[in-house]
Amino acid sequence: MVALIATVVFGSLLAGCGTSEPDRVSKAAMVRKADKVCTAGLRDADRLRAQAKPGASGKAAGAEIDASIEVLQRQIDAFADLRGPASTDAAREQAVSQLGLARDGLERLRAAAVDHGLTVDAAIQANPGVVQQVNRASAKASDALGELGFLTCIGVASG
Question: Between the CA atoms of 143, 144, 149 and 151, what dihedral angle is there, to the nearest 10 degrees?
């Protein structure tokens, strides 16, 4: 599940009255910034996998899922603030929206683990519809990230 989250990176954008948007950057600068966000997310995912306690259930399983959600939310926030050329807005907003849906699904899995004393695996098995939601949203986000050229975010080595 954490590997899925490593790919996951955005949240919804709302422009408030009187607030300024971040400055736009070139496509190349946008990709460089995205690579940094995704590299940090992959490191966080590796750390979470190493710290995971197989068989943890209930609140302990919920805490593991919470940690994954926090990593995902940091990525969502970073990508929501990343502004490239106007031609990238639709794909970026699609990725942000879909990653928000993935996060929502993870929150539902967390609630299932905590409320029913389940392990992460048991929460996944007990909620196939939620797992479908997370996987579908992650796939759509991955497509949008690929369209943006954020190859590090979708597991394609660049260089």
Answer: -50
Contact predicate 108/139, CB 8 Å: no
Q: What is the DSSP letter of 57?
A: B
Residues 6+ positions from 69 with CB-CB distance below 8 Å: 103, 106, 107, 110
Choose among 97, 84, 100, 123: nearest CA to 1: 123
Q: H/E element holding 142?
A: helix 128-148
Instruction: Report phi then psi at 144, rounded to 5.
Output: -65, -40
Mean pLDDT by 10 residues, the chain (159 residues): 38 38 90 94 90 93 95 95 95 97 97 97 97 96 95 79
* Maximum CA extent, the chain: 49
pTM, rounded to two decimals: 0.83
Residue 104 neighbours by CB under 8 Å, 6+ apart: 133
Query: What separation in angstroms does the CA of 75 have from each of 68, 124, 130?
Result: 11, 23, 21
